[in-house]
Input
Amino acid sequence: MSIEELARKTIRELTPYQSARRLGGSGDIWLNANESPFANEYSVTCGRLNRYSECQPAELIQAYADYAGVNSKQVLTSRGADEGIELLIRTFCEPNQDSILYCPPTYGMYAISAETFDINTKTVPLTPEWQLDLPSIENNLDGVKLVFICSPNNPTGNVMKPRDIEKLLDMTTDKAIVVVDEAYIDFCLDTSTVDLLAKYPHLVILRTLSKAFALAGLRCGFTLANTDVINLLLKVIAPYPVPVPVADIAVQALSVSGRAKTKYQVLDISANRAYLQAGLGMLPGVTVYDGYGNYLLVKFSQADALFTALWDHGIILRRSPIENCIRISVGNRDECEKTLAFIRAHVTSQSNASANNDELNASN
Output
């Protein structure tokens, strides 16, 4: 048998998640991965690298618990929120038997992680307003162990209605775990579901330091849940999931001074998002959707041509699965100004060319 034939059929047929780095590109402006434009400095010591790290470093767990406003026993740290997704699937779903449910358009790793472990997937698309279709979700809960909701949602940028999330939690009581992915919540903390943990034992929240805390390269995520869930996840997590330098840097980022810096940087990014939204919204044939994270979803009349022109010019954005839409990460002000200027020039040129063609056709 070939190496290919030795692999599981599921893996042979799997299409991997197309991350920003896998898609590549070459340029000076990278606004395709929802990364922070800030590169903060941290001190790292090497005196403990000959020893394994703690499975759940106490100082790190307490630091994030303080930040999130929960008990330390309600926190688990992992290699990014992506590992949290896998841990939940491995813990609660039986292969070839159980299902997860998610609501596209949304983050693609829910489905890929499930497929990797031979877990079935059910999809209930968001409404035209990109909110939860609760009646359809309720009709599709048979065999579902995990319901994944992303808020703010990637790539649309909107937040889910708090009352809808509570209704979802009510309808899944004693049936399924509801996982609210809050990777971008630090840009709109007032919309977090963390206060619902006290009322709903089957609520799980995913968090990360990759976005607002400007630590995408650190790969440090968190799962917030009630202790029964956390204790189950601890049974399947790797023995040493958090490298010593990762824990050290994360604790610094979550310190009083680190959190103050993050708050300032979130305000800066939010101001740049508003700048992009206002500038793009003035262009003909362009629709800018309200965004609550560090990115905007924008609809263009000729999105493919624009995306290619930007790519060739060294401005790397992200194509969206939503028709004629491009997702734009919010960078620093210089990056936003250059991106807006190029898009404005391109859209104006296309608009003028279209108007000239209309005049020519009318005269003929």
Summary: Residues 96 and 118 are 6 Å apart (CA to CA). The two ends are 67 Å apart (CA to CA).
